[in-house]
From TrEMBL:
Residues 1-81, 529-616 are annotated as: Disordered. It comes from Lynx canadensis (Canada lynx). One of its GO terms (molecular function) is ATP binding. The keyword rRNA processing does not apply. Residues 1-11 have a biased composition (Polar residues). This is Tubulin--tyrosine ligase-like protein 10.
Amino acid sequence: MARFTVGTSPSHPLGPRPVHRLGPQKTDGEQPRGAAPEPAKPVGPRRRWAWGRGRARGREPSSQARASDTPPPPPHHLPIDLLDAADTARPQASLLDRRLPEGERQLRGSGQGPYFYIGGTNGASIISSYCKGKGWQRIEDSRREDYKLKWCEVKCRDSYYSFREGEQLLYQLPNNKLLTTKIGLLSALREYSRVVSRTHETSPCAQAKKDTTSALEELAWTSPGCFGPQRALKMEEFFPETYRLDIRDEREAFFTLFDENQTWICKPTASNQGKGIFLLRNQEEVAALQVKTQSIEDDPIYRKMPFRAPQARVVQRYIQNPLLLDGKKFDVRSYLLIACATPYMVFFGHGYARLTLSLYDPHSSDLSGHLTNQFMQKKSPLYMLLKEDTVWSMDHLNRYINDKFRKTKGLPRDWVFTTFTKRMQQIMAHCFQAVKSKLQCKLGYFDLIGCDFLIDENFKVWLLEMNSNPALHTNCEVLKEVIPGVVTETLDLALETFQKSLRGQKMLPLLSQRHFVLLHDGEADLWPRPGGSRGALRPPPPLRAAPRPGARTPAPPRGPGGAHARPRPPGRGPDGGAQSREPGAERPREGAGGPAREPSPGLAEEERKSAGHRGS
């Protein structure tokens, strides 16, 4: 039986105060009832972390316990290397874990993290299973900052403000809107085209390069890993003609050139799932749009709006001759993965084909026959009955193209996994190069972007748009086969590249790379480090004023590389030289390389995504 006693604390700054102690009932030598109580020890501030066995609140451990127990560090000070915990369900991840020092492996069941947070439901079950399989613990409070992985559907400014570079992993680059909004992508591609054309025109060897690349383009395609001089893509070759409605000159140009024989599609810049989209087919519809935009612009309230959100729209030429699968329109969802931002490690991933439920009719006003995303198809009463027909695997698409079009169109065998895959990789690499110098990059940022491609009846490939937070739902059999693998390999690559960058190790080869194909190896962008084998051009020395006569010349800074050595990114060691090989790829399951790297730059400014984003 326990006894509750009350003592006093004479040392308290405000005078004696009662002190409560809870202890066992005394039997032998008990103090007589009514005697003066023993002076109580002053009670100090409660410890924030109560570590060690047998330590209770308000009671110090025994001397033996203090000698034998070493309190572990708080959870948010756990070494970041614990992120490499092995996932025994996957041999590749287990192999990676066995290569780590013993002390860097996460002990299962220890109850000490690492912690992960998932905001939203898009792919939440897959991400949660992945992390729990590594022994991590899920937290529900979005305000906690002691996480090691945070995956959110909607970006939050506070997450980036409190982000600890080199210690945490955070899904979505802060300004991925340069790629994932209609105006952002349009502006980036336009500026990059201007930069590339200006560079080619001013180069003294421009004509020689043009002749060389023209000859190379006539050669048969072998593998994306065969890098060589390639002609930079032209925007009009893969991106439909597009105009911005928020710029007066572009808006007026579109209204002037509109022809009754053409169909245009009007899209909000920062929405998804087909929301806010409509077609423009005749002069009456265009005139109504013109009146609406003009009335909004004349509104004095609108003029004071900083971003002018109501007019954040684009009009894009509609592809009226799409390739059809059994009479139905389709597009292809592929993935652009930025697994690491310091250095950039960018990958291409195959996805799936999305089909409409209804037969294609270019004159129909029903958007579900023009837009292929699942959100639009679910509106059909036949969706639950025919939903398996709305998604095809890439193997299914390849077999269909081989059977229906290979002979009649003179296509190479497995056109989907050769020519089409190469073209998608080239377009993705071109878009990444357009924004590479403008993306906000920190060690720990990673992003998975959905890219939608359309094939016309002439087998020309068009990029329709790029989407942040792509849909990761598994509501049909094909998606159950594709999506978990995409998410798992995304996290595997993000973890492995994060650890290698943190330790200054060479990125390649990547043990966790299975189906994703390398598009861009950022180690090639780094400046040569002491002992590195890869050479790169150094920048011109900074301009300095001519020294005054008799002035002492300042000594160059010490250290390898002299005055012009570029500072290494966080965690890059002197032995972290880049590996020159990039894997090539034909079929997705046999993996390998990507298209050639091109010069960088380009940018655009844009309105941000709406807060209700749920994947597209």
